[in-house]
Amino acid sequence: MWGAWGWGMALARTTFAVARQILKEYRIPVVDEDVGGNRGRKVYFDTKTFQVEVRLVGARHKDYRGRKIRVLIVDDSQLVRKILRNDLESSPEFEVCGEAADAFEARDLILELDPDVISLDIIMPGLDGLDFLEKLMQYRPKPVVIVSTIAKAGSPIALRAKKLGAVGVIDKEDMDLYMDVPQANRNYLAAIKAAAMSIVGVNRRD
């Protein structure tokens, strides 16, 4: 016999299925989902940056008053790390607490430095960013923004990154890293800030 919890879960699954079917009928693609669990959600949409943030009802966010948001940059390119560091340090809101050239170095720095946000590349030697992201979310969840040339908007890789737990996904080519485009820099900083204010560890489902 079903208890209240069982009936609630069954109703939720039915609601998800109906919503997906309606979107499918109207040919509206689903690019990401955040469903399930035992807490409600609020969705915030920034009309200036087009960033979307999902907050769990009752969840507490970190309080950054009086200090900067500490970011760990993980990218195998020294030049890219330097550019991202310059972008972050151009704002008084952020501090780069460390840099890593691969996932193994990043693991050690996460344990040592406990950053607020991780800026993570995908193509790296030894262990790629997505495999690292999966392990990170399993053992030590942290807000992560993927920054990669192969994470095109709406691509299977970008969708997988979101599904694994990335708060944001940015295509390096959109950033015009080597051209010093102010708007692209602002989009990156907005994504890092949104990640810092997010609650990680929420299960995502197909």
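Second entry:
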Amino acid sequence: MSMKILALDTSHTRGSVSISADGEVLCEILFDASDTHSATLMPAIDRCFAMSKLSPKEIALIGVVIGPGSFTGLRIGLATAKAFAASLKCPVVPVTSLETLAAAFPFSTKLIVPLIDARRREVYGAVYSTASGFPEQIVEPFAARPENLAQVIESSGPHSSYLFCGTGAMKYRELITHVGLRDIVFANARWAVPSASIVAMLAGSKQELTYEELCAIEPLYIRPPDARIPKEKGG
């Protein structure tokens, strides 16, 4: 019986859903979630099942991006993954948006630096080697100002060349070219946001969390979210 994986990414204003079987992508849908993920995610999932001609009961594993990224988007995606897992009694694999971005460049001779626009003139980032075909973390996820990237990126030691990708790399490209790093290149806009089909690939290669461990999965924010719950008067 083939391993069928449902994968979700709601970390950006462009979300994606995919269903794969034994590494083959049966369907992937990208959707605009700039309004709200709550209004777009479930219709995309339903359409993905219809196009792949599968039912939810056939899913054996769920991969979901846990962050960093959109505060509300991450919570909606994770809640949806948990709901499916609870209904289907199937395991879940959490994947970060940063490693998903890096995984789009397997067997690279350059280190991959995914950067996500974090607003407040900051980026979320990390550094990976994909020489083996899968992302291997060199520098752990961080939040930093673009002008300080060289110091953070080379905290594990200087390296010869880097490939930058992600919304943060696109937004601050001009500034990044002058921070003092050697031999850098930039991926194009196609690879600026994570792909659910890549989430599925990573999920299939990672240790599963069991149904009982679902409650332990939380969004990865790196820094406190911008959203705040207003205090009650007199509190």
